[in-house]
Write a structure and sequence with these properties.
eight-stranded parallel barrel; alpha/beta; 35% helix
Length: 283
């Protein structure tokens, strides 16, 4: 039985943790280090940090956050957003990341995957595939944090990325992202059955049953989760009284109450549910 990894995803804009729906309407939820520490202490297997606006500025601005996080948290940390060159990748690895996630630059210049895997090892290179389902049932990969159409078939791109040296794939349904309506099982399964490397499913977790489904039916090796974890932890905090940078929509914080409409989960609760349903995970 494979051991499934539970991986909180933290999207960051400036100094703040943010969350939206379909990668849009980003709300500020708090300080990413607070959430990361809580997830580490409550059993997360890995963390994913994504610079939500890196593509706009063609750079990743998470170095200080990565350095602070890596000093306190001792589980694998994957960093994505705005990584376009070998030097960009080297910089975030030196700051404390264990792996990097690339999307836009990889689609625009696929040889970056080959060069990066040769330089740092395939296990360090994760390719992020953000996809939208088309009317004919196929899936198209999108770039620039889900904003730009690439014209590239997501499943064929997954195969090519692995052939070039990607050691892992993060597959996110933009249609489901942030909605809490469940993962796109078909997308995840098609890619998982097409490649020999681990596939991390993202986009849509609403409850523990959704997570079990994408593991058993979607053949995912790991699950990337954001909203259901973030809003649960948010309810424990008093962020509404604190001052935050204007990076993102802070009105959600200023209200001082959670009207997200998304039920919260804990990592421990997810793992207990998976274990009770014969899905292996690290307890």
């Amino acid at each position: 039985m494979k051991t499934v990894r539970i991986i909180p995803r933290l999207d960051i804009k400036g100094p703040n943790l943010v969350k939206g729906i379909h990668f849009e309407g980003l709300r500020v939820l708090g300080k990413p280090e607070d959430f990361a520490r809580y997830y580490y202490e409550t059993g997360a297997d890995e963390l994913i940090y994504v610079d939500a606006v890196a593509s706009l500025y063609e750079r990743n601005s998470l170095l200080e956050i990565i350095e602070r996080t890596s000093r306190e948290i001792f589980i694998p940390l994957t960093v994505g957003g705005g990584l376009r060159t070998i030097d960009d990748i080297r910089t975030v690895l030196r700051a404390g990341a264990d792996k990097v996630s690339i999307n836009t630059a990889a689609i625009k210049r696929p040889e970056l995957i080959r060069d990066a895997s040769h330089s740092f090892g395939s296990s360090t290179i994760v390719v992020s595939i953000e996809a939208i389902k088309k009317p004919d049932g196929s899936y198209e990969a999108y770039t620039e944090y889900g904003r730009e159409s690439s014209g590239v078939d997501a499943v064929e791109w997954a195969k090519r990325a692995v052939d070039l040296g990607a050691g892992e794939l993060v597959v996110t349904s933009i249609d489901r992202e942030g909605t809490g309506k469940g993962f796109d099982i078909g997308l995840t399964r098609m890619i998982a059955e097409s490649v020999p490397v681990p596939v991390i499913a993202g986009g849509g977790a609403g409850d523990a049953a959704d997570i079990l489904s994408v593991i058993k039916e979607g053949k995912a090796d790991a699950v990337s989760i954001a909203s259901v974890l973030h809003y649960n932890y948010f309810r424990k905090l008093s962020y509404g009284k604190k001052e935050f940078s204007d990076e993102g929509n802070t009105e959600f914080l200023k209200r001082g109450s959670d009207r997200s409409g998304i039920e919260g989960l804990t990592i421990g609760g997810i793992k207990d549910y998976l274990a009770s349903n014969a899905a292996g995970c690290r307890i």
